[in-house]
Write a structure and sequence with these properties.
This protein has five helices and ten strands; from the N terminus they run ββββαβββαβαβαβα. It has 251 residues and is α/β, with parallel strands linked by helices. The radius of gyration is 17 Å and the shape is globular. Bound molecules: hypoxanthine.
């Protein structure tokens, strides 16, 4: 089985794993994916903002990235998202399993099904994240004493600007626990592709207007917890798959 880690802000490589660059041509563009070597031959890694953090959220070629995973035969994905905290479910420096998303992006093409040659499909989003991978993540985290909230709603803005306090107030009323700029687009495309995707959010700040001390967690601090998260990802991605219907969605 092949699996991938999709990393965001602060996650530009997988520590301790040698990789080679692999170029994948898709109908949406070319993607350079890092591929593990030796024991990790079946592991792939995409840094969605580029390894130098130069691609803003609204410019990421989400369709090319997800289609590349499909073309490589990758079935399982562990996605990591930096977020700003709205509720206390995940506070700055903390982690959470994402269970739902709300998409308020504008102008992004967030589907493979545009009609015409590509057809029309209304992919169900009742369960946007793979429940099997999700429960394995919680078990693996608990075993390691790694604190992680067991659910949370991710609200996806267009970015790249941050939100106004008034927007965050509204998003809180929507039911959002934290805010980011990439998660919904990526998840929807993965779900359309029948990929088993689980997502972990890590908070790097309080969202605008929530608390005054808006301190961004720096890359060094992220690095320290990243290794534990990588261990969890590697354990769950290559574990025996359990029951779920991610790759059997009715249209
Ligand atoms: N808003 C949107 N996206 C983010 C934030 C935020 O406060 N923090 C990290 N990603």
């Amino acid at each position: 089985m092949k699996a991938a880690i999709l990393g965001g802000t602060g996650v530009y490589s997988i520590d301790g794993i040698e990789t080679v660059n692999k170029t994948v041509n898709t109908e949406y563009g070319t993607v350079i994916i890092k591929k593990g070597t030796g024991k990790w031959d079946n592991l792939y890694f995409i840094s969605r903002h580029g390894s130098d953090h130069s691609i803003p959220p609204h410019k990421i070629n989400y369709r090319a990235n997800i289609r590349a995973l499909t073309l490589l035969g990758i079935e399982r994905v562990f996605a990591i998202y930096a977020v700003g905290s709205i509720t206390d479910i995940v506070t700055p420096g903390g982690f959470g399993l994402v269970s739902q998303f709300i998409d308020v992006t504008q102008g992004r093409i967030n589907t493979f099904y545009e009609g015409g040659k590509t057809g029309l499909k209304h992919t169900p989003m009742d369960e946007p994240y793979c429940p099997d991978l999700g429960s394995k993540i919680l078990i693996s985290a608990e075993k390691r004493g790694f604190p992680i909230a067991n659910s949370g709603t991710y609200l996806c803005t267009n970015g790249p600007r941050l939100e106004t306090p008034a927007e965050i107030k509204m998003y809180k009323m929507f039911g959002a626990d934290y805010v980011g700029m990439t998660g919904a687009t990526e998840t929807a495309l993965a779900r359309e592709s029948g990929i088993h995707l689980a997502a972990v959010s890590y908070s790097i700040n309080w969202a605008a207007g929530i608390k005054q001390d808006v301190e961004f967690i720096n890359d060094k601090e992220i690095e320290e917890t990243k290794n534990k998260l990588t261990e969890i990802a590697l354990e769950v991605l290559f574990d025996e798959p359990g029951e779920c219907f991610c790759n059997n969605q009715q249209s």
